[in-house]
């Protein structure tokens, strides 16, 4: 944990997940200012759009930030890497594709590379290629998901056991107890997306935020299994429409068109739940308020410490009676 904080130049072992085309400077800067690693997710945005967010973010914070490039989703991978170099971004996370071809180029520029992985096999390949840090993401997570459908609680310890680089846990984490659980399973920190949506600095529609606060434990659904493109989203009128269309037989082309970043923006930014969708991880059922990012991250650290101390004391008491 300390090593990861040092390498990423952060004070808290908490990373913001990439948020595709709804990424913005305000939330990214707030996460970094609070001690975590704010991340700009490039999604399908053009290099010009991403550059504007980078410039705006750097006006709001002088703390370290990261860029997330979804390899198989963005048509501008090479151009985005050039932007990273141009603006001296020191951390890049690579997801949704094979990171191996890009790691040497980023290392040549002194960039720390985080690779998102969804299996032990993927983790070993990323480590062999030189990834500095791995993010083990279970399919509890929001948005684009692995077809392997492994849970965070099972995936994380298996990856930790098989690699020598630090591993960050992602998927189903949104409070201090989740952070404590991840650390207990061998993680060096956590990555969050959904929980950061429901914060005061996040410039998303109030409908999105309040839907998360009011969500139950079964309020998310997986779509795209029939076409091999899993995505976890919040249950909304549009989500149910997608589910029904998929059940009736949807082609990959239709699915891609109806789950484009345009529909993502409609739901998340404009609050149009009839014509757009919003990503959500299963952690939504635990979200009860909309704090500032700093209050959220500080409370997570305090809760994690208290939970770990409590568990240690209880184990000691049990051992006394053996």
Task: Give structural notes.
The two termini are 32 Å apart. With 322 residues, the protein is an alpha/beta fold. The model has no long low-confidence stretch (mean pLDDT 95). The protein has helices at residues 2-8, 25-33, 47-60, 77-86, 103-108, 120-129, 152-162, 176-184, 194-197, 206-213, 237-249, 252-258, 261-268, 293-320, and strands spanning 14-16, 38-41, 65-70, 91-95, 112-117, 133-137, 143-144, 167-170, 190-192, 220-223, 231-234. Helix 2 (25-33) crosses helix 3 (47-60) and helix 8 packs across helix 14 (293-320). It has 14 helices and 11 strands. It has an 8-stranded parallel beta sheet, sandwiched between helices. A 3-stranded antiparallel beta sheet has the order 7-11-10, covered by helices on one side. 50% of the residues are buried.
Query: Helix tally?
Result: 14
Helix content: 40-55%
End-to-end CA span: 32 Å
Beta-strand level of the residues, as a percent range?
A: 5-15%
Strand order of the largest sheet: 1-9-8-6-5-4-3-2
Structural class: alpha/beta
Low-confidence stretches: none
The biggest sheet, with number of strands, parallel, antiparallel or mixed sense and barrel status, is:
8 strands, parallel
Q: What's the pLDDT, averaged over the residues?
A: 95
> What's the β-strand tally?
11
Rg over CA atoms: 19 Å
Large-scale geometry: globular
What is the helix/strand order? HEHEHEHEHEHEEHEHEHHEEHHHH
Q: Strands, helices and their partners?
A:
Elements: H1 2-8, E1 14-16, H2 25-33, E2 38-41, H3 47-60, E3 65-70, H4 77-86, E4 91-95, H5 103-108, E5 112-117, H6 120-129, E6 133-137, E7 143-144, H7 152-162, E8 167-170, H8 176-184, E9 190-192, H9 194-197, H10 206-213, E10 220-223, E11 231-234, H11 237-249, H12 252-258, H13 261-268, H14 293-320
Parallel strand pairs: 1-9, 2-3, 3-4, 4-5, 5-6, 6-8, 8-9
Antiparallel strand pairs: 7-11, 10-11
Helix pairs in contact: 2-3, 8-14
């Amino acid at each position: 944990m300390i090593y990861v904080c040092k390498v990423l130049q952060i004070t808290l072992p908490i990373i913001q997940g990439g948020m595709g085309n709804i990424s913005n400077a305000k939330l990214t800067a707030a996460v970094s200012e609070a001690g975590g690693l704010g991340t700009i997710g490039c999604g399908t945005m053009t290099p010009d759009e991403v550059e504007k967010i980078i410039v705006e973010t750097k006006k709001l914070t002088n703390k370290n930030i990261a860029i997330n490039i979804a390899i198989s989703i963005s048509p501008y991978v090479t151009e985005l890497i050039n932007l990273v170099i141009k603006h001296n971004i020191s951390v890049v996370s690579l997801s949704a594709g094979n990171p191996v071809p890009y790691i040497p180029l980023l290392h040549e520029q002194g960039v720390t590379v985080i690779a998102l992985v969804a299996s032990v096999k993927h983790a070993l390949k990323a480590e062999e290629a030189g990834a500095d840090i791995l993010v083990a993401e279970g399919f509890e997570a929001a948005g684009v998901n692995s077809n392997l459908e492994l849970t965070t609680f099972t995936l994380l310890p298996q990856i930790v056991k098989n690699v020598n680089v630090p591993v960050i846990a992602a998927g189903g984490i949104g409070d201090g107890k989740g952070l404590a659980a991840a650390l207990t399973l061998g993680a060096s920190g956590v990555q969050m997306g959904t929980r950061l949506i429901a914060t005061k600095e996040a410039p998303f529609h109030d409908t999105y935020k309040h839907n998360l606060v009011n969500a139950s434990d079964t309020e998310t659904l997986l779509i795209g299994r029939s076409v091999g493109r899993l995505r976890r989203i919040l249950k909304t009128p549009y989500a149910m429409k997608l589910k029904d269309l998929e059940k009736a037989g949807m082609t990959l082309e239709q699915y891609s068109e109806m789950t484009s970043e345009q529909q993502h923006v409609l739901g998340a930014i404009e609050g149009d739940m009839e014509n757009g969708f919003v990503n959500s991880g299963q952690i939504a059922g635990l979200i009860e308020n909309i704090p500032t990012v700093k209050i959220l991250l500080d409370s997570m650290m305090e809760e994690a410490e208290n939970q770990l101390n409590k568990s240690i004391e209880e184990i000691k008491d049990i051992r006394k009676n053996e």
